[in-house]
Design a protein that fits this description.
- The chain is mostly helical.
- It has a single domain, classed as Orthogonal Bundle (434 Repressor (Amino-terminal Domain)), CATH 1.10.260.40.
- It contains five helices and no strands.
- Helix 2 crosses helix 3.
- The protein is globular, with a radius of gyration of 12 Å.
- 20% of the residues are buried.
């Protein structure tokens, strides 16, 4: 996730806004996501982050254990 953030060239606030967060909460939401040790990511949040940085979800490193079968999810939901 950190590599995707770094390569995006965007600020945490810009990514958060693209993810649908308000201006007041955008930076802190992305900060929590990037510091995943203290934050339990939901699949919808991971999808929003992947879309915001222009990366396929399956390419993001350090996916939580419950998202190991990401390709199966993509097949179910028709890809993201």
């Amino acid at each position: 996730m950190r590599a995707a953030f770094d390569k995006s060239g965007m600020t945490q606030e810009q990514i958060g806004l693209k993810m649908g967060f308000t201006k007041d909460g955008a930076r802190s939401a992305v900060s929590r996501l990037l510091n995943a040790d203290s934050y339990d990511q939901r699949l919808s949040t991971l999808v929003a982050f992947a879309n915001a940085v222009g990366k396929p979800l399956k390419d993001l490193a350090q996916l939580p254990q419950r998202c190991k079968k990401i390709e199966e999810l993509e097949n179910i939901f028709g890809g993201w």
